[in-house]
Each structure stands twice: as C-alpha cells, then as structure tokens.
C-alpha cells in the first residue's frame, strides 16, 4: 500500500491517517467501488482490517454465508493468510499481522470480473462491511492504538468531474415529480441533472446512495432542526449527502474535511476550533451549525440558492469574478459559458439530483430502506484532560462507540473544557466514576468494572501491574464497583486553540475558495516522531450545547 507522511497536509496532525481506495478499485464494479470508498477505508487500515477478518474467523453467522465458496482458491488463500495473521497478532507481531491481512484482502479484491463466484465473494464482503460498526475494537487488544484516527474518502471525489448517460424516458417522469414536489430549494430538470439521477438511481451510484441514506438516520433530526433554526431550506441536507455520505471524518483530495467539507480557513471563520487534539469540522452538530450559517450568508450575498451552492463549492470570490466577467448572475449561464471550475459545473446538479430522488423515494425504490437510529446521548463537561479510553471505562461502553459519538477528538485525549458526548442516561454514573481518578491522572489512568472472578492477581496480570500498586490505589477493593488502574505512561497535555473570526470589508464573513491542486490519497503516521510540545493557548470557553 502506498503511504505518505502527514506533513504534506500541515493543517492535520501527524497522527492523522488519510486513507483512500487503491488505484485498481477504479476498474472494479459498483459494489467494490462502494466498499473502497465508504467502509472506513479499510484496505490501508490495520485495525479495521482486523475487525473485518476477525469477524470472518469468529462469527459463525458470517462464516456460514461463505460455505458455498469455502473451496474457492482465493478464499482458501485468504483464510490461510487470516489464520497466520491471527497467530502473528497473538504473538504481538502487529507489523507482520498487518502485512498478512493486507495480502488477504488484496487477494480477494483482485478476483477477476469473469470469475463465476465473484458475486458470492462480493456479497460476502458486503456482509462483512455491515458488521464493522457492531464489533468491539477493544477486542483487538494491542493491535489498536488510541491515537490512530482514520479518515474516509469524500464520495464526491470520484464523480465531480464526470458525466453520465440519461434515460430518455426519465425526463417526463422527473418533470411530473417536480410539479408535485414542494421544495424550498429550486429544482431544475436538464440533461446533467437527469444523468446524475440515473447514476444514483440505476447506476454505480446506487450503492453509494443507499449507504448514505441508511447512515443519515443518525443525523437527520439534528440537521433538520439546525437548518430550520438558521432559516435555510431543509433540502440543504442533501449537500451533506453529496459531500460526505454523512461520514463525519470524510476528507476530500482538496483537504476539506468533515460531514460538510470545511477547509481550514472557512471553518475558522465560522467558529470551528481546530488544533492537534480536536477539530470541530469533524463534529456533526457544530459543523452543521457552521454550514447553515455559511450557506445563509452566501444566499444573502448572491440572492440565489444555485449561486450560493456554487460558491460553497468553489468560493464566493470565484463566483463573483464569473458574474463580473460574463454579466450573468445565473448559475446555469455561468455553467454553460464555462465560467466556473469544472468540478462546480457538476456540483449543483448532483445536489439537485439527490434532492429530487429523496423527495420521491417510492419512485426510486427507496421507500422501505431502513435508516439507522438517531444518535441519542448525554453531554458532560470534562474539567481535566481525560483519555477517551478512561471515559469509555466510566461509561461502561466501548472505545469505538465513544469515538463514534465524538469524531472531533483526534488523539484519544479529551481536553479540559470540552463537552463530551456519552451514552444516553449515563451522565451521573460517568461523572461519579471519573471522580475516583485524581484529576492530573485522568489522561493516563484507567478504570475496570469489577466482574465475577476478578481478583487483584488477575487484574495485575491483565494490566501488567504489581499487586501492591493496585492495593495502594484501591484500599476498599472488596467493596468497590470500579477498580482504579494506575498507568505510568506519560502523555503530552492537550490545549484548545481558539478560532479567530477574520475581519472583513465585506458585508458577509470573508471566506477562502477551496485550494486547487491534487492531494495525495493515502497518508500514514511516520514510524517515529518527536514528542509533541505542550500547546500554550489556554482552553477555549465553550457554550454548553442544548441537552439531547
């Protein structure tokens, strides 16, 4: 796998891994393209690879589904590599395990298109990706590093400059749909919009559409609420669907990140704090609020939602110059005259196509598609630097679930002053459990919920501690619900870098167009790095979010 050091993106911390699909995925069919683009970019991700293949090895329900291809040469070879990888993992040889798991998945992905069993292998991989989020990453033990934060590829990167065939029979149908559709976002039907409707409804984009629609269930109530509060059309939710597929850690090749794809400068303009420990552009709720304000400002500036969407993509300055150069304040005229960047020529049609489809789900076979349940959580303020693993211990949940609730936390430590999301109904218990740990130790120490059969001896072996250390930290061990687990590993102390709102001569905030130029698609943390210096800025003061 080709990897590059994160220094090529200076605004991202060195621990961030930005992962995209391998080159050969361009030659695969729709499902394989979908898997590469949207399943946590697992082909270059050791930990999710381990999740995938341990699921294969350990879940009988999954194994039964591949019985029909168990003797396929590629499956047998993959199974052999998986077995060797598990053995290497048990022997604490994570590097060799990574190589073996990479080889296994590459071997399956290279199945020829004319292989008669290729569809079965495809379904097998689809089932595995659906299980990724349900598997506890903690079961991987030493293979998971808390600071390994993975990013997903933006789905727009693969289609923003492409065109697609249209079905001539579709035009009249879509026109009828629009006549019966109520939308605050003006809808237009032309060949480009029809081409993208056909792509998402019947072509390779179908899998992408269904994936995003299912995942949108987590965020739809929150997004609609914020869009209404900011006075912008609810249909703008489909901008997030186009930009990220509702993946909070989506990253484009132009270094825009998050569900709403903010570049660094625009995020700062709209109050999204960014630093080495947290990045609010990745926070679904905060970034949605910022995107709604940004879009409202753009509409107030241009007086037209299509121009506002174009400006969201290429920057208001770009649209300003196009209007001045052509004397047309109309997006479709600018598009026809090639006055906007090529990616912007498709950006608005993509959003309109998604809007038309989602406004008429029954017409496109989506009415019965089940969405994921909305996220429900409590919020607590963290008063001292606290490891995300300790917070997970206190909430009696998995690290991965807490990470899903808090995607803006980059390096496994929650800075003081941060409002942490925890499972619904757990606020009082988490607060009480954290009080068991001295404030200056919460970034390294852990908690263990006592289970039947636990003893000082078993816990000392589990956490590789001397029993005397556990006894000293837990004088009332016999009556305790949680055991305090001292850890001696020092960590750098995080701080919060405040966002500075730029002064501007414009009536609306100054915004910067998304930078041009290709960005590498795959980044990896260097094997060695210097210990980070402690950030000097004081923690930023936050306004507590409304309870959910």
Model description:
A three-stranded parallel β-sheet has the order 2-3-4, with no helix packed on it. Strands 1-11 form a two-stranded parallel ribbon. The radius of gyration is 25 Å and the shape is globular. It is mainly alpha-helical. It is 43% helix and 7% strand.
Helix/strand structural class: mainly alpha
Radius of gyration: 25 Å
Mean pLDDT comes to: 75
The total count of helices amounts to: 22
Classify the beta-strand content into a percent band. 5-15%
Biggest sheet, in brief? 3 strands, parallel
Strand order of the largest sheet: 2-3-4
Number of strands: 11
**Helix proportion:** 40-55%
Question: What is the 3D shape?
Answer: globular
- Low-pLDDT runs of 5+ residues are 1-65, 126-149, 497-541
Q: How widely separated are the two ends?
A: 42 Å
Task: Give me the secondary-structure topology.
Layout: E1 4-5, E2 16-18, H1 30-38, H2 46-58, H3 60-64, H4 73-90, H5 94-109, H6 118-131, E3 149-153, H7 170-179, H8 191-202, H9 205-216, H10 220-229, H11 237-244, E4 250-251, H12 264-269, H13 284-302, H14 305-314, H15 316-326, H16 331-336, H17 342-359, E5 377-381, E6 386-387, H18 388-395, H19 399-405, E7 413-414, E8 419-423, H20 427-434, E9 446-449, H21 456-463, H22 467-473, E10 482-485, E11 523-524
Parallel strand pairs: 1-11, 2-3, 3-4
Antiparallel strand pairs: 5-8, 6-7, 9-10
Helix pairs in contact: 1-9, 2-5, 4-5, 8-9, 8-17, 10-13, 11-17, 13-14, 14-15, 14-17, 18-19, 18-20
